[in-house]
Amino acid sequence: MSRTARTVIRGGLVITAADEVHADILIEGPRIAALAAHGSQAAAGWSADRTIDATGKYVVPGGVDAHTHMEMPFGGTFASDSFATGTRAAAWGGTTTIIDFAVQSVGHSLREGLDAWHAKADAQCAIDYGFHMILADVNEHTLKEMDLLVEEGCTSFKLFMAYPGVFYSDDGKILRAMQRASGNGGLIMMHAENGIAIDVLVEQALAAGHTDPRYHGEVRRALLEAEATHRAIQLARVAGAPLYVVHVSAAEAVAELAHARDLGLDVFGETCPQYLFLSADDLARPDFEGAKYVCSTPLRPVEHQAALWRALRTDDLSVVSTDHCPFCFYGQKELGRGDFSRIPNGLPGVENRMDLLHQAVVEGKLTRRRWIELACAAPARMFGLYPRKGTLAPGADADVVVYDPHAEQVISAESHHMNVDYSAYEGKRVTGRVETVLSRGELVIDARSYVGRAGHGQYQPRGICQYLTGH
Ligand SMILES: [Zn+2]
């Protein structure tokens, strides 16, 4: 009989979405075998190959970042993190699972897109990963393909009401995809911005000589996010399908989600740290520096943040993901000098999410359990990975983070591990830091040293959304 490696994590405060308990954790091979109170007879009896002392630390589930774009093609360039560099940076930040977006190109099948993304990620990832599918071309063939993808564990599909001529789907295509999802268990994810109207405002702004990055935020009006969110909700109701709205940033869009949820609809919303911690003031930074903050939906005036924090507490927003899509300032963001519409859209952040949300705990905006729910448990449930991912319980994958809640750090491009030449949070001081990370029982970060390897990360087929009635 082959021997299974055993690890014991002793002395920490174990925090999940449900509980906070002073417990030791026994890991056997890739999974958690048991939890037992500190000093209990059970815990005292555990022998182990490796013991990790977590005294004075938190022990939390590895983060699940349900929205990343490694190597994403956009505007004639590619997001600067590969699956290798991006998943390593994620691990440094306490995230042990990402769900990235495979892209279907117009005129090609979903299968071709999914295969291409598997090829990019295969043998590269330091942590586990799954895929959503971007539907750029809804037609009879791709609608049928959706059923097959759901069966093999790619259970969520992203549609765009923005980016006409690239990813955009009109209302008819959206309705057809939603109808298909209502029958096959898929979850429709929506980029909800009225791209047709936005393109008119872009054209008018450029014609008026308004070319600086700040105009990216001004033309992408909050009302056009709210309008698209409202329309997506109504289309989902007509189709009888659940809906997940990605990267919600406007207070008016949150109000649409809150109304839908008050009606008891299967409508869910996600926001990202950049909308909670950054604002249109960053987009307005001089000397083209605002380009570092160009993403869509855009950063909003600071007043919107209160509505987002409130919605995170009331569950009108259920998940915090990063929408990690980094482009270097030099050579990439610069493509849009003199024309904000040519600035590649996206921010780096996969490494910063757990720390920034912990900072919200420090500042009294979230409870510790809500931190873990938003960053680990809810995304795992939303996308069919729970309880293998997102919690610490017997039988779960041993994706575990030992977190020092008292360590201070200053976020900086000097010290981060993402492959991008700036940090959106440069100079920000936060309390709390990842110390040790295990992925399926194997050390990835050991007391602030990277000991992982490309190819450890495995593809994770997913079940369907676990928030739907009857599942
Ligand atoms: Zn995205």
Automatic annotation (TrEMBL):
<dbReference type="InterPro" id="IPR050378">
    <property type="entry name" value="Metallo-dep_Hydrolases_sf"/>
</dbReference>
<dbReference type="InterPro" id="IPR011778">
    <property type="entry name" value="Hydantoinase/dihydroPyrase"/>
</dbReference>
<feature type="domain" description="Amidohydrolase-related">
    <location>
        <begin position="58"/>
        <end position="444"/>
    </location>
</feature>
<keyword id="KW-0479">Metal-binding</keyword>
<protein>
    <submittedName>
        <fullName>Dihydropyrimidinase</fullName>
        <ecNumber>3.5.2.2</ecNumber>
    </submittedName>
</protein>
<dbReference type="InterPro" id="IPR032466">
    <property type="entry name" value="Metal_Hydrolase"/>
</dbReference>
<comment type="similarity">
    <text>Belongs to the metallo-dependent hydrolases superfamily. Hydantoinase/dihydropyrimidinase family.</text>
</comment>
<dbReference type="GO" id="GO:0004157">
    <property type="term" value="F:dihydropyrimidinase activity"/>
</dbReference>
<keyword id="KW-0378">Hydrolase</keyword>
<dbReference type="InterPro" id="IPR011059">
    <property type="entry name" value="Metal-dep_hydrolase_composite"/>
</dbReference>
<dbReference type="Pfam" id="PF01979">
    <property type="entry name" value="Amidohydro_1"/>
</dbReference>
<dbReference type="InterPro" id="IPR006680">
    <property type="entry name" value="Amidohydro-rel"/>
</dbReference>
